[in-house]
Amino acid sequence: MFWGLSAALDLFEEYLNMSKRSEESCEEEKPNEETKIVQINILLFGSNDPRHVIKTMAKMYAHKAKGTTPIINFYVVDGCIETIARHIALLGIALESPESMNLRGKVHLFMDVYGNSLLRASSYQYLVGKAKSLFKMLTDDECRESMTPFLNFENLKYRERDGLENAFRFWLPKEGHIFHIQEYWAARLRKLMGVRYDHRDGAFDWDLNMVLKDREGQQICSQEYRHWRETGIAFTYPEYEYSKPNKTLAVGLVRNGDKYIHRGYVGDMQTGPFSAFGLLSADERLLQSAHGQNDYRSTDVTERNLLELFHELSTETPYEHNLKDSRRYGSVKLLMGKTLLYNECDIDAMHDYDKPWIHIEGINIRFLSSEDIFKLRNGDEFWSNHFDVAFVGYNYFAFLKNSFIKVLKKKCLLILETKLMTTARNEDIKLFEEKLMNYAKVNNFTGVINYSALNKKHSILKYKRKMDAEENCANNH
């Protein structure tokens, strides 16, 4: 919960790559067209965060430059309404007007809200102002139309809209809106560790060096991982102080007079928010290591990748990274002092951040009701043959039935997230991957690549429908 366990994907690019592979078996080539409009529907079934939406939007300009005009309709479904509120807030940061903040400030703000249990005072202040803006947008259609016309809440039930309103209200700094994240984190950590609690540093090192680094977590440094496991603060810089509660991590909000009852912190405490943007990079200079020590932390890779995506969202031009802008903290021992105490009501927003969001032509984002989870898995006739791409989060695979396949088009891309980037035992990882592969096989899907021929572990598995050559060519023409 709260972040995904696989890297952010340009889902439009993934769809095009799948289509190209399907066309390779056809002898006759498709005619060249100067401008080709491609419209696809993408289902995010429990993706936990908006990483795929952000990367896909950021790369739209590159597809247009190649002569393809994408029209992409995202359908986002999650069983927890507070997670949807968090989705919206993170999208709001990514698409914040350049007039409101500079590029690096936006990146560090996003990293704060996305991966830290405690925020900087400036990030907390932004969240307060943004909450007011989001509340207004949710309750006033004219406001939403002027600020974010590409967001659609029509599928949400009234109780779910009330849930969004509760979340946005809870983020405001009022006396009854208390979220003691440090206490919740410490109590849950003690419970999860059990008898190992007094030796938790050793357990943290084992989980990282013997488990996660043996999978795809080589870029995570020991210092940042241990600090996150102990405090819930993943992305740190020595010049910043983290003191304010990140209320986007609260779930199960129920109003009780002027106060709120909630479930404390119930998210991941073993992997961390490093997978989405912090493990891979097109800039291989940030992935170098020497004598077993990374030159750059996962935090630094996350910063660089978000700089690229947010630059492309704002300017629709390629990003060139100056390596001098990335701090080489991989092997540096940073001072990790005690987190500061905070006063819940000592700050109020100076700005409402109500400028129109950056508009990406051809993008529509529709948030679905939690009830649609069961309609989709049952292959409800309303959604029949609707989606070109479906991404299924690892913790939502349990909801799937064979009838789910009915909502996918014949020429579709199905992406299943594995449990690779968890600290589960290798036997459990393998067993879960076998379940995913068997699901695909039973429902007449084949791997986009030949997974059985690769001796490699995968955080995601990509599938397309099996078709005979004649039907495949007919569909592609």
From TrEMBL:
GO terms for biological process: axonemal dynein complex assembly; motile cilium assembly. Pfam families: DUF4470 (PF14737), DUF4471 (PF14740). The keyword Cytoplasm applies. Residues 151-446 form the Dynein assembly factor 3 C-terminal domain. It comes from the Eukaryota. It is found in: Dynein axonemal particle. Keywords: Cilium biogenesis/degradation, Cytoplasm. GO terms for cellular component: dynein axonemal particle. InterPro entries: DNAAF3, DNAAF3_C, DUF4470. Its main location: other. Residues 2-119 form the DUF4470 domain. The keyword NAD does not apply. Belongs to the DNAAF3 family. PANTHER family: DYNEIN ASSEMBLY FACTOR 3, AXONEMAL (PTHR22118), DYNEIN AXONEMAL ASSEMBLY FACTOR 3 (PTHR22118:SF14). This is Dynein assembly factor 3, axonemal homolog.
